[in-house]
Structures are given as structure tokens and as C-alpha cells.
From TrEMBL:
Residues 17-181 form the N-acetyltransferase domain. PROSITE patterns: GNAT. Gene3D superfamilies: 3.40.630.30. Pfam families: Acetyltransf_1. InterPro entries: Acyl_CoA_acyltransferase, GNAT_dom. It comes from Isoptericola haloaureus. The lineage of its organism: Bacteria, Bacillati, Actinomycetota, Actinomycetes, Micrococcales. This is N-acetyltransferase family protein.
């Protein structure tokens, strides 16, 4: 299985992305950001790329619930996205969400993820969210996820052992959690 390209080594430069709410016209670019992670890694447990209808549904659900679905642009191009979705469907979980964040490999390691996740947390606070959970797969392509979430105040709250199986191997996940005020 081919690895994803590493972030460019000119990466010490911190980039200042334009972060804004996603619209339906961003969804092709959003899908393109995720696609290589689906095909080549276990960062996501999707084994097939979400369909156009899946993406429209995710955006519509975020909009309907008042939860953020954001994109990050560099030079007018969408290079990443992040959204919040209900953690579990049962009613008493109403103030708890799971965050999802993906950047194109070339945009990694330059502070874009920090700005995008910060904006997501700010928007979650405004939306009345109390707890945000990140589910981080044990995969080399997710190496930036633990430091990113730690940097933004998440703590490790658990490990789920071998809950996924992808590309012929069992994959564990780490749960990280941040309380919003
Ligand atoms: C995780 C991700 C969103 C982080 O965004 P980013 O823009 O690369 O992160 P930043 O440049 O803002 O850096 C945030 C922290 O992560 C660290 N980091 C970023 N990429 C890293 C990597 N490949 N390996 C190790 N650490 C990394 C940075 O050094 C920084 O740590 P610090 O606060 O200790 O200095 C991005 O790397 C990505 O899209 N990864 C693949 C998908 C993924 O793992 N999504 C999360 C699923 S839970």
C-alpha cells in the first residue's frame, strides 16, 4: 500500500488559511481531501469514499443542528475541512460531539490544522456543545492528530483495542476529549 506523501519540508512556514463555513459547492473539494485517506490508510474506517449524497447529508445535518462544518482555504483552494457531528444518537448525548478534521497532505505541518480546529471549537462553544471527542486511529498517517488535539486542550480518555480491521490489520483507536465552557 502506497504511503501518502509527507508534508513538504518547507513546512516550517506557518500558513494563515482562510477558515469559513462550508457550502454545497465545497463538497467536491472536501471529498477530494478525504479520498486518499480512505484508499491508503486506516485514519478513517470508511472503506469506500462517501458518496456525493453522503456529503450533502453531513453538511445538511450540521446545518440543521447548528453545528459547524468548516473549510480551510489557502490561495482560494480548499485544503482541509473539519466538522462536528453528534457523538451518539441517544437524546442525553445532546451536548457531546465528535470532531472530524482532514487536511490535504501538502497542507499539513504548517499550522493550518491548529487554526481550523480552533475555529471549530469556537463554533462548537457558540452552538452550546459541552464535550468534544476525537477518535484517533492508530495509523502512521494520523501522527499529527494527537499533538494537534493536545495542543488545543484535549486529553486522552481511553483506548479501544482492535475495534477496526482495515487493509488486513486490526486497528485500535484512542479517544481524546475536551470540555468547552
Ligand atoms: C491531524 C492534522 C489535521 C493536523 O493538522 P496540521 O496542520 O498538520 O497540524 P499543525 O501544523 O497545526 O500542528 C499541530 C501539532 O501537530 C504536530 N504535527 C503535525 N503534523 C505532524 C506529523 N505528521 N507528525 C507529528 N506531529 C505532527 C505539530 O508539530 C504540532 O505540534 P506542537 O503543538 O507540539 O507543535 C493533519 O496532519 C491531518 O490532516 N492529518 C491526517 C488526517 C488526520 O489524522 N485527521 C485526524 C483524524 S482524528
Amino acid at each position: 500500500m502506497a504511503a501518502l506523501p509527507s508534508p513538504d519540508d518547507a513546512s516550517a512556514t506557518v500558513m494563515r488559511p482562510h477558515v469559513r463555513r462550508a457550502t454545497a459547492s465545497d463538497l467536491d473539494a472536501v471529498a477530494a481531501v478525504l479520498a486518499p485517506y480512505v484508499a491508503r490508510t486506516a485514519v478513517t474506517f470508511d472503506e469506500e469514499p462517501p458518496t456525493d449524497a453522503d456529503w450533502r447529508g453531513r453538511l445538511a445535518e450540521a446545518d440543521a443542528r447548528g453545528l459547524p462544518f468548516l473549510v480551510a482555504e489557502l490561495d482560494g483552494e480548499v485544503v482541509g475541512y473539519a466538522y462536528a457531528a453528534p457523538w451518539r444518537p441517544k437524546a442525553a448525548y445532546r451536548h457531546t460531539v465528535e470532531d472530524t478534521i482532514y487536511l490535504a497532505p501538502a497542507a499539513q505541518g504548517r499550522g493550518v490544522g491548529t487554526r481550523l480546529l480552533s475555529a471549530l471549537l469556537d463554533a462548537c462553544t457558540v452552538a452550546g456543545v459541552r464535550q468534544v471527542i476525537a477518535v484517533v486511529a492508530d495509523d502512521p498517517a494520523a501522527a499529527g492528530s494527537v499533538p494537534l488535539h493536545r495542543r488545543l486542550g484535549f486529553e486522552v480518555t481511553g483506548v479501544l483495542r482492535d475495534v477496526g480491521r482495515k487493509h488486513g490489520r486490526d486497528v485500535s483507536t484512542m479517544l481524546m476529549q475536551r470540555t468547552l465552557h
